[in-house]
Known about the structure:
This protein is mainly beta. It is built from four helices and 21 strands.
Amino acid sequence: MVSAEELPGAELTGFGTIGAAYNTSDKVDLLRDLSQTKGVGYSRKIDFGLDSNLGLQLDMRSVSSVISGAVQVVAKRDHAGITPDLTLAFIRYAGDDWAMRAGRVGFDVYPNADSRLIGYSYVWQRPPVEFFGPLIFSHFDGADLQFRHRSNAGEWRFKIYSGITNEKVEVTPTTPFFLLNHSRLHGGHIEFRHDPLSFRASYAELHMANENPALQSSLDQLRSPGISFLIQNAASVADKLQMRGKVFRFSAISATYERGPWLSEAMIGTTLTGNTFIPDYKAGFISVSYRKSKWTHYGVVSAIRPLAETETAMINPGAPPELVTGVNALNTQMLNQRAWQTSLTAGVRYDLNAQSNLKFQIDYVRSRNNLLHRRVQPDWNRNATLLSATYNFIF
């Protein structure tokens, strides 16, 4: 049997991360992103699955390299435990200054977004959680088209894409998953590069096709006949809770400066949802790193903030006690979903060789809400320190 490595025009490569993380607080699980259902802290003080993953990629190309393709499978911790996921599967047709892909492709609304699982490829232990963590999907089925224009003044890149998503999001540990299946996605970005600077502006829209099962009973109650006599703004709250039919709008601008041993990155973005369970928010970070020989030292400040106040249900006098209890629980849940968190990060990367590195990082996390957490205990003081180490490799 002929192996993939021996096939003409085919190459098998891979990447992986072996990591360990320790949370100083046992009152909350800290997550890497919203695809995870368990983190580190409450579930376990020391965790080996927060950042660990393994990926394999098969690249294929024609003799002229005009037509090529790739298939990538990544195993990492998500809603189903540590399971493999088909993250890429596309055919690419390219000319000198343009390329088109069709199939399953990465969602790169932010720089590094479609490569955030490849720990070897970036400076940090993990991309800043406040900025990248709320992204509720990483790939889509569809097509993208990219153009490039080069001149003495610099290089322009333009990209547009369209397709549908097919991933799952866990909202709470006790409710069914929220399916993004058949939700339509459209977007693009413009990028300008002229060493040592690059700038990028991105925009994307996700049209929600499904309802969140965690909200269905609340929506049914808020829309039940006569409920307006007990909850004066029931219709308005239900409209803002509803997921189906909403359009999530992602936008971001970024700048990168790289010269000699210095690398600086700054990004800021907004996500507008029109929804109170994944509310409107703004997020950003500034990262500075300095490389000397095999060592790279870096620091990051990242934050996420809500953009609007959450409308809570207003109960009229005389409402039954059981209704009051249920509505108060819903209001608390909605308020906790507002995204407010800041992280201060310091770390170091040591390059072992051309194919592997070690990273050590400390994150001081200060939070007010639960969007990026799970299993939050009532007596958590809203502060935590995360210590982590990883071995990252490519082959």
